[in-house]
Amino acid sequence: MAVAESASPLLRINAVTKRFGGFVAVNNVSVDIRPGERFGLIGPNGSGKTTLINCISGAFRTEAGTVMFRGDDISRLPAHMRTRRGIARSFQIPRPFRSMTVAENLLVALDFTSLHGFASAVQRRDIVMSILMRTGLALKADVPTGNLSQVELRKMELARAMATHPKLLISDEAMAGLAGSEVDEVLDLLMKLASEDITIIMIEHIMQAVMRFSERVMCLDAGKIIAIGTPAEVMANKRVQEAYLGT
Amino acid sequence: MFSFDLLLGAIVLGTLLGCFYAAVSIGLSVSFGLLDVPHVAHPAFLVLASYGVYLLNDRYEVDPLLAGLLITPLFFLLGLFVYRLYHETFERRGTDAAVRGIAFFFGVAFIVEVLIVLQFGVDQRSVTASYIGRSWRIGDLRIPIRQLVAFAVALSLTILLTLYLSKTFMGRAIRAVAQDQEALRLMGANPVRVKQWAFGIATAVLGIAGALLIIVAPVEPMLDRAYIGRTFCVVVLAGLGSMTGTLIAGIILGVAESIVLTMFGASWAPAIAFAMLLGVLAVRPQGLLGRRL
Amino acid sequence: MKSKSTGVRFWIGAILFLAAMLAATQVIRNEYPFFAGYIILQFVVLAVAWSILGGYAGYVNFGTSAFFGMGVYTAVFLVKATGAPLAVQIAAAAGVGALLGFAVGLLTLRMQGIFFSIATIALTIIIETTVTNWRFVGGAAGIQIQRPPVTPPFDTYVQMLFFVQALLVVLAVAIARYIQRSWIGRGLQAIKDDELAAECTGVPTLRLKLLACVISGALMCAAGAPAAMYFQYADPSSAFNLNYSVSALAMSLIGGTAHWAGPVLGAILLGVTQQFLAVTISSEVNVLILGIMLVLFVVAAPEGLIGLIRKIGNWRAGRAT
Prior knowledge:
By secondary structure, chain B is mostly helical.
């Protein structure tokens, strides 16, 4: 326990604020994510969850505060540099490269992030196939992304994120719109990735999934942290219940 | 030779010219500013309208402004048709719509240019009316009456369209469709129909605008190319879709062109609109009164 | 292994093409085919160069005429100031094009969709206006240029320009082909599909677009340089004519932008048609054909000729099995 406490955080979000015009989407949020942690991020619609991960992944620049990753300040880095340092993400609405096959989608990641740039075509194909195998998409390798089902698209996004060799994976509502058994499939996949020493931040509306997955949960409301702790603690929190049930 | 009088004259003439620029741009302010249609053929339609007015004036001696009014229904129909075609082929298919949409409208512009050349030749054409060719003197300043006519009509046109968009049900629906299509659908209106109607209006306005274009100066088939810069400059500077902004932006452009013309000569004039446009895009893409990009 | 053998085939094809062009200049006595052929080859270079940014990355550049015109005027300036030979003119134009591409890219590549397109038109007009006001190279009235004596083995200057343009075609196609098949092409394709997703997958989008803009600009400028000698005359409104922009774009889209062969096909198809019509009917009809073909293809065959050929291929394959 003492070791875990003293270990430096993988990701430190320090007083991050993001405004859109007069609207404060993320308001002075600070949190540390420990290496190897399974971290759940919840909150009602428009509470700033996606904005916060956009600030982490670099899609937005923060107005105030810093984002530290493995001890370095990455607040000013463009998104692709953050990806190369080990932050990968999926999108709330899947954003595949539509003119490419599944395998080609992963090759983009391989081409631009990893040491495999000089690997031979055969080696690269092997790496892609092993990732697709782990994500259950091996049979779909040469299928154009336009022909994938919703759950396959979700998995493809996670696989593409994996191909960047992340230390931190941010999954933005990867289960939204899926049927019950499909939710379990994606959840199992995320569990498996977490067991491979990848830190995962999961944003989710499906409460059961978050509770089953997360070691720690944070709840945002109107851009501020209203609760953080174990799943049980957060669920028991009165303000969380209010935020979800509405007033 | 720089003098205060010269500058004052440039500002007065520039303001008149600016209202005219607003009038030729206001249709684009609707079609591009509100509806997001990359309508690069807008200036080509404008020139086409001028030729329509020329035809009526030349053959039947119809007053140019009346002729402009007479062709608006045709342009309304043209607008309905073009939007329908654009929607079916690009908006509905989704991907890549922007790229091919721009190419499409450029193709349309080229076709219009050539059809005009084939029908009327490449020479300049102008119209005749009692108010063309005379001018009004105040001290040293000489203001052509046609500029005043264009100014008055342009101003009324802009005000009318502003009122239409803010006071009528359809006008409000058009503004709503620009902001939130989903909300509109919930209100029971069909966004595509609303957009088609709006595009029709935006094109119909070109009838009058085309009359102003040929009243202010003679036209030639390739004139639309000079107006790509001017119209898009005005619409982007205005902040996409803002009608008041369109008027102000038009005046800014008119005064800027007029001052450059007086101080540096006509050869630099074509670049003014584009330089301003580029500046706005690079520095303040939301425009003067704009809200989004 | 497969890619290696297609590489060999490509270069054999390129050498055969150049040999055939060279042979033609030695055998055919009539000047006209070279006059017409030069224009077609020039459009092949422009279309291929355009597709590097416009096709692969999906950034619709309307600044082709700016680059082309700068190429023409780089040559004009060098001829007037130093009397530099043709090869130097072209190399200098490529350098100017690369610099211009870098500057244009920095200024405009953060914009997206139509804003990028309009910004590139704006730059074209601004550059044209600047050249119009530059007395040294003739201003608005234009400038006459004397051709130097022709270099053997060519009999006439036009034949030599024709062959030079054929060399540029091979250079442009080789570069476009390399980009398409390399990580650069994959990155540009990712940008075209979804720029944010590309950035989050590690693609340095801005840098890659800049690279594409620089290469594309250098090729367009180089293609423009020999035009000064070809026409023996240059004036801003022809050198910066918007028709170059729309032609390059139309030829690429008509041919199809997914493969380097698309723009080549499109340029040949459109170029030959236009040369034919210009002689038989009129140059206005040229522009009409350009407009109609552009509209037809973007509406009915969004993947261009290449897409149509692939479709037919798939259909045949489907019937065979």
